[in-house]
Automatic annotation (TrEMBL):
Any one GO molecular function term: ATP binding
Keyword tags: ATP-binding, Coiled coil, Nucleotide-binding
Keyword Mitochondrion: no
Name recorded for this polypeptide: ATP-binding protein
Protein source organism: Lysinibacillus zambalensis
Coiled-coil residues: 256-283
Length: 326
């Protein structure tokens, strides 16, 4: 990436939902994935298959953290950037669980706590944080979906109260919520004798919600167009207040099962790819390239000889990145 500070221009905020980071959480079956799929040119990364009733959704099943990282490699492609503008992670909870499993396999332990001095928790946190933040850094909008749970909160004076929050555990919740421009809580409510779904955009003592936009209303209909209008109106009100100019922008299941190679097949594939790498780069440079890839995916000081069958996911990433190098 070329950096030239003299070419920097003032950041402009779009009135639609492009490039926004949004968290939507709520009760089951209220339409979280449906709303998310209506974001501009959305790609659904399905850690759970909750899109069966959504005709036309562009979805990629993700069963492992290595799958997620392979998707990220492709998101850097210029042709992919033309096809998609928003990435949906459904659910953020399951993505974190797969990240933790990936670290367990890479470090060769059964529990994160087995890594001394809290080091395992930091490894998972850093991996999850780095990967998630790379998506908006590539210019995509990001929508993260979670479910809702009620937690007991203890106030500073010792009193306790109940609060509805995303089902994410404390560590990933801190990462996800700190990234978000908009945190919306979707809830079914009874109104005029019928059940309707509302999206709460301003937090209270009873539930987690919030927005970076000063004039976002506290609650709206849980509809995509209502959310677009609420954010556009909020931005325009702030624009008038500050005298700023804001640019106005206009607001099939792709999953194919990837061939799952066995541990031995992967080792053979990497051996063949390494031979091609030596032909392309020469022995010394190829050795350095391989060492960097192995350290990236298996940990510092590791070699391919150290790999066990439980680390097939990490090995698949070594093979994947090798292919991109050739």
């Amino acid at each position: 990436m070329t950096i030239d500070l003299l070419t920097i221009q003032p950041h402009q905020i779009s009135r639609d939902l492009r490039e926004k980071i949004v968290v939507i959480y709520g009760e089951p079956k209220v339409g979280k994935t449906t709303i998310a799929s209506q974001f501009p040119k959305a790609l659904l990364l399905a850690f759970e298959k909750g899109y069966n009733a959504l005709a036309g959704v562009m979805a990629q099943n993700v069963t492992k953290w290595a799958d997620f990282k392979k998707v990220l490699r492709q998101l850097e492609n210029a042709q992919v950037k033309k096809k998609f503008e928003t990435v949906i992670v459904d659910t953020a909870d399951l993505s974190y669980a797969s990240c933790e499993k990936f670290i367990l396999q890479r470090e060769g332990v059964d529990k994160i706590g087995d890594i001394p001095y809290g080091g395992g928790y930091k490894l998972v946190r850093d991996e999850f944080d780095t990967v998630l933040r790379s998506i908006p850094m590539m210019g995509y909008g990001l929508v993260m979906i979670s479910h809702a749970q009620i937690q007991t909160i203890t106030a500073e004076d010792g009193t306790e109260y109940s609060k509805t929050v995303p089902t994410l555990t404390k560590q990933p919740r801190g990462i996800v919520l700190s990234m978000a421009d908009i945190i919306g809580y979707a809830k079914s409510i009874e109104r005029e004798g019928e059940s309707k779904t509302a999206l709460f955009l301003r937090g209270t003592q009873q539930f987690e919600a919030g927005s970076r936009f000063k004039y976002t209303p506290p609650v709206i209909k849980f509809e995509y167009e209502a959310l677009v209008k609420a954010i556009a109106d909020a931005i325009e009100k702030e624009e008038v207040e500050k005298g700023q100019t804001t640019v106005v922008e206009k607001g099939v299941n792709l999953y194919a099962e990837e061939e799952q190679l066995s541990f031995e097949d992967l080792k053979t594939e990497i051996k063949d790819l390494t031979a091609k790498l030596v032909e392309k780069q020469g022995a010394n440079v190829a050795k350095k390239t391989m060492n960097n890839l192995v350290e990236l995916h298996l940990g510092k000081g590791r070699t391919l000889k150290d790999v066990t069958e439980s680390q097939v996911e990490q090995l698949s990433l070594v093979a994947y990145d090798l292919k991109q190098t050739l």
